[in-house]
Design a protein that fits this description.
single chain, alpha+beta, 2 domains, four-stranded antiparallel sheet, 6 helices
Length: about 190
């Protein structure tokens, strides 16, 4: 069920209306049900290859989990953006594999905007006051495997869908996994 209000984070400030954009699942506006989880998407640099974002099953809190040393700072330090509050009525649940995610295929006006000048500082503050969990590498949370086998499986899936260029990000962020990825792909 989609909440009455949903939240979208963007590196672009001052948006009066949010417009769907192309992504791996379709052309949509993505949103989540609370501003703390949305804050984890103020920067998407490197996506899941830099930091896993989710909700911990034990604590119920949103989390950011660094996937290599310095990943948190690489993704968030010095990045600005905004968290937008949107009317949830035009958003749909169940269109992507992640149950926390809601999507909308048409432009949506912003109800409110909270400008964030430094995503890293904002997330550290949310962690300090107990609203989210920041997990620094090599620590893990929520079943993320210490051996990064989940990333190996993701790489093989992306390779089969998108070809060899799908491995570029893995080569940049996780070069130590390339031999294991190649082994899984029989390359």
């Amino acid at each position: 069920m989609v909440p009455r209000r949903v939240y979208h984070a963007s590196s672009v400030q001052g948006l009066g209306t949010l417009i769907p954009s192309d992504s791996t699942h379709g052309s949509w506006i993505y949103a989540v049900g609370d501003p703390e989880l949305a804050a984890c998407f103020l920067s998407t640099t490197g996506g899941d290859l830099t930091c896993a974002v989710g909700r911990d099953r034990l604590s119920g809190k949103a989390y950011v989990c660094g996937r290599f040393k310095g990943a948190f700072d690489h993704r968030y330090a010095g990045r600005s953006g905004s968290i937008y509050t949107l009317e949830g009525s035009d958003f749909h649940a169940g269109r992507t594999p992640w149950s926390e995610e809601f999507v909308c295929a048409k432009p949506v006006p912003s109800i409110d905007e909270v400008r964030i000048e430094d995503a890293s500082a904002h997330l550290r503050h949310l962690n300090t006051i107990g609203m989210i969990e920041l997990v620094r590498y090599p620590e893990r949370i929520d079943g993320i495997p210490a051996d990064d086998s989940d990333l190996v499986l993701r790489a093989t899936e992306w390779y089969r869908k998108m070809g060899a260029t799908a491995l570029d990000g893995f080569a940049s962020y996780h070069p130590r996994l390339l031999s294991e990825i190649r082994r899984h792909l029989d390359l």
